[in-house]
Every structure is written in structure tokens, then in C-alpha cells.
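Data availability (excerpt). The following record was deposited with the supplementary files.
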Amino acid sequence: KQWYQRRVAITAGEDDANFSKVSDNSYCYKFICDDDEFKSFMLQVTWPKKYPEGEPAIVDLNSFFNSHIKVHEKERMLNKIRDQYKDWAGMAMTFSIINHVTDHIEEFKDTIKNEHVVEHVEKETVVLGKKEKKYRLRLCVDTTA
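Predicted structure:
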């Protein structure tokens, strides 16, 4: 049944620049937010060997594209998707997942807070035989304010 799903995925993805094939059993979809790029994210759907009858798809947000999203925010987003799994049990769910996120995109974007974060990083360096401490300030700007 996966061969059929592959054909459907490839055909459907031909017309959508946000959809991409990672491998024969893994696909990505970018949800682009034009008004705030820090609300954009990429969802990856991977099919285990027994998909779809025996195991549900594996969904993750671990892409580098999502490095601006905090771990607890990713977990909240994934839980919103996983809550739908019971409705899709035993079915091909790749496009059901994408459609669900698309239908609820505002909820998913609201989960990504992009809070103002200031982080101090202490760095020790040795300059001509004597130790010297340097401080570097890393600032993440809150673009939603």
C-alpha cells in the first residue's frame, strides 16, 4: 500500500512548492507565514514499515528550518497533531496531517511565541599567557512586539 501512497504524494507534491520528498518514506511540508517569518515551520512526515495499517506516520519538527521554535512549543504542536491520530487509525494520513495543520494554522502559529530572550554566555580565553574572561551577549529580538 505504501507504493500507492508514494505515487499519490509525488503527484500531489508536483503542484505545491512547499511539499518535498526527503526519501521514499519521508516527506516535508513548509508552512510559510508571510507576515512573520518566525511563525513559519516545516513538518516532516515519515512512514514506518507497517504504515499505514499497522503503525501511524511519524511526525516531527526537528528540521533546521525550525531552529527558532522552542522544544516545548514543538511538543505542543506535535501533540495537537497526535490528538487526531485516533480519527486516522489504519488510514494513510500524510495529507490528513497537512490538511489538519492548514485548517488550524492560526492555532499552530500562536503556539510559536518567539519571546524576547537575552542570554549571557561566559567565555574564557587565554591572551599571551594570562587568563581573561570575555562576555558575549546573545540577543534574540522579539519581532512580534
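Summary of structural features: The longest helix spans residues 2-13.
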